[in-house]
Amino acid sequence: MKKCLSLLLLLLPFLSLHAVPAGNSDVADSSTYTFVSRNGKPLLMDVYRPRQPRADSACVVYMFGGGFVTGSRTDDAVRQYCKLLAQRGFVAVAIDYRLHLKEVDFDTVTLFKLQHVFRDAINIAANDASEAVAFICRHADEWGVARNRIVLAGGSAGAIAALQLDYCRANDLQPAAPLPDGWKPAAVVAYAGAVYCDGARPHFDSAPAPTFFLHGKKGKIVNYKKFPPLLRSGLYGPKKLHRLFEKDGYPHWFFRFEELGHEVASLHIYTIEEFEAFVNKSLTGSVMYYDADVRDKGLQPTKWTKMNVFDLYKGND
User: pTM of the entire structure?
Assistant: First the structure.
């Protein structure tokens, strides 16, 4: 059953029972750590620790977007988001991951090859994120983090990597191998994300974490449905994943932005109240099924609504 966004907004005061008001806390410090080295190059994380932590010691791991070509944990929007999370009492962690597509010449990539380079880029990013989670768990007591209350979040490529990490964990796939035994995210929040499946439709051998999908219905960079559409292998977008979650009874929220495309990948700050409401419900084990068609006159389509994945990588903007 679909409900309008306005109803959720009315419920926010009741959903956010464990939230720390933004005005009552600040970032105590932010520190940078090397969590793993790849081919002699360190991968870093910035840890933003709140001055007034949440009582549940929750942590959010955020992965930046950029199409596995560009982007950084130090981007201004990432820093702002992590500071906002710390103001709300979360330990916020922004992480590096390898940008596998950075050296790819997309002018020479066929559709068949594109699938494989994407698969590799996504699994590499998920594997790096697994190492980051393992590092956080090793330092959890020092940083005031509850190991079972770590939330994965990201936008665009970062959202794909976050979803892929939980998918690999649930299916015991190699990219998730560095995770501590028995670890599971407390929640996953994906701004314009998808899951890559190789040769088969998505399935879960064990239950996924409660998941919040936010996606533009006109999204073609990370397709709302699936890309490529006619093959089993490929990126399965939130419409396909939602059907699986719904059929198997997995807790999730799904916000479908009616008029937008890939702009939704950048709405993490704009929707922080909804993010916190979902996380609070997930952490208390009371997340419900929620499917909303979102219309907001303040959110207008841009060039990102019209662009597809080929436009993005060939620079046709």
Answer: 0.89
